[in-house]
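Researcher: Quick sanity check before group meeting.
Model: Go ahead. Protein one:
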Amino acid sequence: MRTVVVGAGAVGGVVAAHLVRGGHDVLLCDADPDQVAALDAAGLTIARQPQDVTGQDVVVPVTAVLPTALPERVDRVLLAVKSHHTRAALEPLRHRLAPDGYVVTLQNGMTGAVVDDVLGPGRRVSAFVNFGADVVEPGVVAQGNVATVRVGEPGGGISDRVREVAALLPYAEATDNIDGYLWSKEAYGAMLFATAVSDLTIAEALGAAAYRPLFLALAREVVERAPVRLETFDGFDPGDLEGSLERLVAFNAASGKARTGVWRDLAVRHRKTEVDDLDAVGGPLVHQVAALVRSIEAGERRCETANLDLLAAYERLERVGRPLAAVVEALPAPRRAPDGPLLGVQVAVKDMIDVAGVVRGNGNPRSMAEGAPAEQDAPVVARLRAAGADVFATAALLEYAAGAQHPGLAEARNPADPTRTAGGSSGGSAALVAAGVCAAALGTDTGGSIRIPASYCGCVGIKPTHGLVPVDGVTPLSPSLDHVGVLAVDVPTAARVLGAVADLGPLPALLAATALRVGVLVAELADPAVEPGTRAAVQAALDRLVAAGAQVREVDVAPLRALHATFEPVLLHEAWREHEALAADPDWFGPDTDRLLRLGRDVTPEQHAAALARRAELLPAADRMLDGVDVLLGPAVAFTAPGTTPVIDSEAGAVEGLFSMGANLTGWPALVLPCGHDDGLPVGVELMGRRGGDAALLAAAATVERVLGEVDA
């Protein structure tokens, strides 16, 4: 019986060469004229065939045709085309396949439904093929290894034709559970697809500790969706995914095929891959891999390790971020510049900042459900993309950043203790950073909404100078006080991200601790509202700075506190003005937010103007607090994270923002960084600098962070 091999590429070529060498009558068919011409002219070359004792390339004479030249009748077909070419490859066989003929699928993916649709039921045999091979050039195939091949009837069973095919194919054995092998390969294939978006070899990627949770989660997503009992092969054991990774690293390190065919399609041939078949399996991480592959196919990205870093962040987003209620939406394959200072940095964005194509949810169910997707990025997001950052997720927040949680949404939880709040209003951003999901996130700050969550969660949060970062495309609360800023894992990362979205100028060289001049807000540290454990942690940090040689002097906080009386008239009047139209719908806001916003109805324009004038009058005295010092230092918040965020018009809410609102009124840059713990919960220390002195503040903060880190180490 003549065997027709449709698809004379990597797998089809290796199989055809074995059949020809075994004396079988073989006809090769391929849609690529160059491949057909090369095969007819010089035969089929199998390069470096491992089982050949000579170790030499093997050349076999073959006959090859284009699909239009297939004979009128074919009895047995070995189908070895990419899964997305299945239907096109089968159409010429629709009226050529003999009544008792059949097709053997030697493909990746689940192509059986397409075969049945074109040829009718009962016309296929399924094969599982795991040896590695690549087309090097027309007519030349390199075989990388010898591995598992199984043949079986779809749905189970071993028939006469299965035995016939198993005897025909190289390395093959018959199985009564071919679907179990195919589903196992889908799980392994999900991992291989992920390696292909990088520039690493299969073994390097699978062996990297940083990506281990990603690969395990990808395989697990597929395994959990499999409708059949899965089989083991070549080191992959669906019942032992942890051990499988180690075995697969060894298996692939020993293979002559270092990278997948998917990688070659993406990086070398620049053509479509079989990703649609993988995507059909489903699962959030599988979908993210598919989106990245399609982005590379479209020329929007290149194969590089930054893509694997992004996939690893998506895995942490699902595993860690969602249980903390910190995630609003994962953003697949985000657009970005191919290079830049933030390449390989994943940034989450508070869900009140425009991201093109994404609804600005504002921590409000109605806004999430009824809002229109943003037509373009907010400038701050556009700057992140231009710097090469991956804007990969939107983060949860208090409703409209107004200081209260909407009762229809879960409040973002604290990674240090999920029974506690992450803080507000940028709690989702702080939680994602502190939990290690991403290195940085954007937040907004009107009275402490970056710095309070940073203190509660134990990360760095900077509110820059007022106006330094544009607030266009950001839901306003109080424009006179609103800021967009950064939450980050450390001060250098905060500086990198802020430097990419704002014109900071060059950062000063890091200060030596002995040159750092610190103005201590002693009255804030001594305030009776400060919990003893919080006071002790901040005092201990101050003592470390003194021991390191920092120059410390007390600064009277009275000029800053004098500004506090202007906060409510400004905030309430402007917040009501911004949200009055929505508040006309009594069901739009949650009850606490609605009540808070309506307080602004009673603040007249005259009172608002008077508060702004009084603020301007008091600012020079406040600015003089920074004379002779590099930074002002005090506690970030009077206490550690409570169970839930107190509304701002409560007693606890007033205390919560006591130390943070001053920098919003002055417009100073202000930064919070971790300085210790109280009963296991993070405590933050706040540093403030001069307006426009953001770079200097970051340099001083890096010195403080280094000193505190040296002591901890």
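Researcher: Fine. The other one?
Model: Protein two, sequence then structure:
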Amino acid sequence: MSAETISAASLEPPWLHVRREPFEHGLLPLPSLIINEGVSAFKNLRTKLLEHVLSSPSWPTSNAANDGSQVKLCKNRVASSGIAASLGLQEPHAHLVLDTLASVLSDEGGDFDPLAHTRVLDIESVGADVDDLILLLYIQTYKRVPPRPYKDAAAVADVWPTPSVFDGYLTPTSPLQNRSTRRTMPCLAEEEAHQLAFVRKHLPSILALLAESTEDGDQEAKVITLEKFQHLSLLLRAADASTGCLPLSQATPFFANSDPDMPAAPVPLSQVLDWMLSHLCAASERTPAKAPTKDNVFHESDGSGSDVPMADACVTGTTNSPSGGLTTVSNGFQIRKDWRPEGVTFIDGVMKASVLKTEADFKNGSVKVAHCHDSVVYVLGPLKYVSVFGCSDSIVVLGAVGKAVRVELCERVQVIVASARICISNCRECVFYLGVNQRPLITGDNHNLQVAPYNTTYSNLEADLAQVGIDTTVNKWDRVLTLGVVDPHDSVSHSAGVADAQAEGASLFPAERFLYFVIPRWNEVEPQQQQQLTAESIPFSLPKAYSQAQQHRSTAAESLKQTLKNVALEDNRKRDLTNAIHAYFKDWLYSTGNIRQIYDLQSLERDPKAMD
């Protein structure tokens, strides 16, 4: 954070905070999207895009807003064909840009763009607003916060304690080879400070892209209209002390309470810039952090390009504090290192345990599962964004995710999710059971990834899928889109030639090894009467090869069961056979670690809060 940054403690509300979603889910590892020629290059690109606008963009009536919000369909909209022609992209990559924009647009009340609420299958007919697209492309120059250097050798193995066959095989610049851990990864406050530094530095250029000439044609006197100002909701959100978040346009003194029939007058660019810089601050500076719980299982808070110097954007010192430790930024303001973003539910640092979170446990539909090892995590309910980071030897079962899922730096993890879209980055030896409307995106340095069709269900799944707008008739689980090994947004340097290396994608999980995953029905009156999973009970249709393999497995199991029941044995021999089966099953439970899950489920039946 730069020295001239004004802390939230010294500002009067409303405050302007940077939205994390565009930086977490909106950065694409496509070098062709990075434009470094300045504002003029983006203006030229805007002119090209306007040559390919949709003649009659349409917004499906099924997406009509039901919260009283006003939805405006701008005429200057482009589909993926126009994006491909303007940027020289392949059609799949252009569609990825359009889909990514749809996933990160703000949809929180006020005047939102219709693409934010459009179902995945309809985004081509709606198209992207050209100005929103320009802002998404602008932030592609952002580079993530670099990892901290190691402090001790023990930090190398605290996330992946088990050796892997790939140790010593990965490239030196691979994040997995570097074994990035909580000690080396930047804290959330550092990431927010870095994003804020990027936006503050580039805000004059961003506003210049949205500015228009005055009515008298004076090219020097630029103004910002209400319609153009609203596009900044892609990057910023407004908050005050009483109501929390509020529409961005209603936070300003010059656009608030404007009559839709009599739009507010355009405002000089310099006036808008001065007001925004005087209200732009970090949310972590004004939001009191919640002290970490002893078991470190669950945390919840209510409440840029390389041209941004790290000395200005990151923590420069640490003050020891009995309350948990404060980080000191360069302007002297102190924030807690364990600060949590508002509206995000954290499941952090679970070790050898099971965790259950339902809709009542998370707010605003955003969840982050981080640094869990040898555990089973259930997050069941309608969600918007999910991030799974730095986990190993675990199973993560997610509900219906309407916006985006990102899985990063995980090893030997099984992820089961029904989502509109998913991005997998720098993982190895993982299996993904997917019900997805868009092609799974795989980026970075990955090894031994497998994808499989969705394999589970729970009582409210179909209702959750309908609520977040996922179409169960479309599942592109096996149509993987693989991009390059090197992510241009990473701050680490790469060896010569690495950028040209072919990225490793994912193979299809063998049908003969495919199994249904049974989610316990904890709230049922008689959970022991749980219905058997079949292909018909899963909302996404199962491919023929997998359904046939399941039928064969079920038939073989039933045949063995009947054989054991009908075998002619003396009573003492039957007891020996039963004891042998029980012993082998017990050995399997202990060898696989599933015995712990049984104990966890028994505890949950006795106390519903036992897994919190």
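Researcher: One line on it for the slide.
Model: The longest strand covers residues 392-408.
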